Amino acid sequence: MTEASEQPTVDRILVEMTISAPADQVWDALQDREKLYNWFGWEADSLRDEIDYIFFQYTRADKEAGILWFEGVPDRFEIEPRGQETIFRVVRAEPAGKDWDGIYEDMVEGWISFVQQLRLAIEQHGLAPRRTLYFSGHAKRGGSGPIAALGLTDFRDTPDGQPHAATLPTGDTVVGQAWHRTAWQIGLTVPQWGNGLLIVTDKSVKDSAPHGRGMVILTTYDLSADDFAALEERWKTWWDRNYDEPPASEEACS
């Protein structure tokens, strides 16, 4: 019998995808600090500390069951072996009966971005080192969320695996494949960045960001120092022209 103070919970699958790699390889990518560093999040001085906090200090691993439990939050990773492939899920236990359709959630969209970075890193790069750029902000007056601002709205409906080609206002021409999409974000492969990945996320409009807000993550491989610096300069110039920094309180929970 459920106590009055307790709410019944149900499992909501936040992500379910197939990774073209055996389960042991996927599990290793979740347990090895250096491999985690090569797919989780983005370049930041705090990244190694964040990995230690999220994946080691407050995580309970059950390899036999294929489950990684995150302590203090209702989320878990599930790894299901399928021969040379793995079914990977991010699952959240939450109160039953709530309708989440059309609601933006920072943590959910973050998990989606990260595990799509994991899939790319495993399938196409053998978890080799990468370099990333990250931008987040509120659109200036007259602006919009970054999907529209980058001219990528049409790709919201592009099925995964289909080709794309776009010339961006940053000056970059990207030609690759649609990688993933949700109601709030899109991912596109970018061979020009060493077969990297561009993830663009719109966030919900709010009083402090009436013109839109969002973030982008650029994952690159094997770019020279000069090419990476030039890419960073192009994107920073465009971003700063179109977006203001979000409040520190918002950035901390993104």
What can you tell me about this protein's structure?
By secondary structure, the chain is α+β, with helices and mostly antiparallel strands. It folds into two domains: 1-128, Alpha-D-Glucose-1,6-Bisphosphate, Chain A, domain 4; 130-246, Alpha-D-Glucose-1,6-Bisphosphate, Chain A, domain 4. 28% of the residues lie in helices and 33% in strands. The protein contains seven helices and twelve strands. It has helices at 23-31, 33-37, 47-57, 106-125, 146-149, 225-242, 248-252; strands spanning 9-19, 59-62, 67-70, 75-82, 85-95, 131-139, 163-167, 173-181, 185-190, 196-203, 213-220, 243-244. The strands form two sheets. It has a seven-stranded antiparallel sheet with strand order 7-8-9-10-11-6-12, with helices on both faces. A five-stranded antiparallel sheet has the order 1-5-4-3-2. The protein is globular, with a radius of gyration of 19 Å. The two termini are 37 Å apart. 27% of the residues are buried. Residues 1-5 have low confidence and may be disordered.
